[in-house]
Amino acid sequence: MAHGNGRVCRRNGPISSVVKDDIAGLARFPRQPEIAKPMDVFLILVHKLADLLTSQLPWAIGLAALFTVVSLFPSQACNPGQVWWKNPGLLTDTHYLFIIPVLMPYLRTALVVLVVALASGVTSAADVEDFLTKGRGPLSTLHPVAQGAIYMLGTDFMLYWAHRIFHGRNLWPFHAVHHSAEHVDWTTSYRNHPVNNLLGASLTQMTMVALGISPEVMVALVPFDILTAAWVHSNLNWTLGPLKYVFATPVFHRWHHGPVHLGGEKNFAPTFSFWDYMFGTFYMPEGELPEEYGVDDPDFPKDFIGQMVVPFRQFIQTFQRPKPKADSPGPAE
Ligand SMILES: [Zn+2]
Ligand SMILES: [Zn+2]
C-alpha cells in the first residue's frame, strides 16, 4: 500500500519533485545494474571503451614516431631517393591522418564491440564489464594470451582473403585509393577508403568478438596493428632473410604496391606472409627491390575528396559494363 501511496504522491506532486525523483533514480543506476535500460548500457559501454582507448593512444603515437625516425636512414631505404617528407602524396595522406586519424583503429574496434555487444544481448552494467573483459563466444574461456594469438592469426587469415576480394573487379575502386600512392611510405598505411576499412578490418573484428575474443585483448593489440602497418609501408629494404616466409616485411609489401606483372597481384597478407606462401601468391624475387608504385589509371583522383567520392561512381560502373575497357578501373596493382 505504501508503494501505491507513493505513486499517487508523485503523480500529484509538483513537476520538479517528479524530475528530482527521476534524476535520483538515474544517479542510483550504477548501484542497481540489474534495472539498466538499453540506453544506459550503451552509455556505460561507450564510457568503458573510452577508458580503454585513451590508455592505449600514447602507444600508437610513439610507434608512429619510431618508424618515422627509422625511415630517415638512407642506407636502409628500399628506394633511397624517396623520403617521406618529399612524398608527393603526403598532403593526401595527411588528410587521412587527420580526418581518419590514429584513433580510427580504436574507434572501429569500439564500434564493432558495440554492435556485437548489443546483438548478443548485453543488458546490464555487470554484463558490460563481463563482456569487455571476457567476451561471450566459445573462445572467451581461453587465456588472454591464447586469445591474442588466435586473434592475430585469425584476423590475418580473413584479411588476406578480404584483400584478394578487394583486388577483384567490383570492389577494386575502393582499394585503389590505398594503391594510388606513387611513393609508398609509412604514411601510406593511413590511406584507406572507409568502405575498405568497414568491409575489411571491421568485419573480421566483428567475427572475432562474436567468437568470444575479449575486446580488451583486441584493444591491447591495436598498437601492434599500427606498428605492422607502418612498418610494411615504410621505405626500408628489410626482408628478414628466411623469416620472409613468415612475416610480411617492407620489401614484401612494396612489391604488392607494384605493377601487376611485378607482384601487384601478390603478397596480400597484412602480417604473416606464410598465407601467401601457402596459397601461391608469394612474390619476393631474390636480389631485386621494387621501384614503381601506383595505379594504372591516370585519371584516378589524387586528392582526398576525390578519393572519397569517385570510388562509388566507379563501383557502380563495374556493374554497368560487362567487360573492362581501357578507361575503366581495374585491379591494375
Ligand atoms: Zn592491395
Ligand atoms: Zn599497402
How is this fold's topology laid out?
Layout lengths: L1 H11 L2 H14 L9 H33 L19 H10 L4 H16 L5 H10 L9 H23 L5 H8 L14 H18 L3 H19 L16 H7 L17 H5 L25 H17 L13
Helix pairs in contact: 3-5, 3-6, 3-10, 5-9, 5-10, 7-9, 8-13
The structure holds zinc ion (2 copies).
GO molecular function: glyceryl-ether monooxygenase activity; iron ion binding
Subcellular location: Endomembrane system
Protein name: Sterol desaturase family protein
Please, what is the average pLDDT?
77
Helix content: 55-70%
Total strand segments: 0
Radius of gyration: 24 Å
Protein name: Sterol desaturase family protein
Organism: Phreatobacter aquaticus
Subcellular location: Endomembrane system
Membrane topology: Multi-pass membrane protein
Structural overview:
- This protein is 57% helix and 0% strand.
- The model is unreliable at 1-34 and 325-330 (pLDDT under 50).
- It folds into 2 domains: 2-31; 38-320, no CATH class.
- The protein is an all-alpha fold and 333 residues long.
- Bound molecules: zinc ion (2 copies).
- Residues 178, 188, 233, 253, 257 line the site of one zinc ion.
- Keywords: Lipid metabolism, Membrane, Oxidoreductase, Transmembrane, Transmembrane helix.
